[in-house]
Structure formats: structure tokens, C-alpha cells
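As practice, study what follows.
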Amino acid sequence: MAKGIEIRDAHFPGRAPIDAYGNGGFRFADMSHRGSILCLPSGIHGWDMREGDPLTIASLERVLADASGIEVLLIGAGTNLRPIPADVKAALKSKGISSDPMSTGAAVRTFNIMLAESRAVAAALIAV
């Protein structure tokens, strides 16, 4: 018997530069994703965050799980810069991760440069 459409967690199992962003999503590795993403050593994952949602330790759980391969986390907060809450910054620092908040566009550009330099970079990018 034929199955219906199977919805799986969005995940690209590799590292790739972000080719484009906007219109509510991102393009990378000849694919597109609608919504926010986490770019981690374990791959690019869909991320259930929208502009204006509070950044919490729980929302970055996957980042903390991948901490051994991350030195810098770029946080693309949407169209405007938002500070990282103190408890989130402390949780990242306790895992050896420095964090920088910026707009999503700036985070995409910085991520691509650092990735090309083979740096231990990750990005949490909120779709715009």
C-alpha cells in the first residue's frame, strides 16, 4: 500500500556555505529551506525560531550538543541586532563557545567567510 507524504526533520548532513537568504528561508548545497536554520559541524538543521522569539538555552540545545566542534557561534537574529541573554551566553561560554549576535545578513556573510577559512564556526540563523 502506498504511503502518504513523509515529513522528516529538516537536515543536510554536511557543511555548506549559504548561497542566498530572504523570502523566509535559505539556499545552500543546491537546495532550499523555508524557515530558520542551525549550521553546525553535524550538518544544517531546521530550527523552530522566528524573528522576535526569545533566544533560550533550550532553543540552542543542538548547538550545545555539538559544542566540541564549535569555537564561534554567529547568531543571526533577523533584521535587527538583539543582545544574547546572559544565561544563554554563559551556557555557551561554559562549553568553550564564544557568541556574536548580528543581523541574519551579516551572520550569513561572516559564516561563509569563516567556513571558507576552515574555522570551527557555527551559525544560528533566523529567517528573514
In short: Residues 56 and 88 are 6 Å apart (CA to CA). Helices lie at 61-65, 86-94, 104-116. The beta strands are 11-12, 18-22, 25-28, 31-34, 36-40, 43-47, 72-76, 98-102, 121-125.
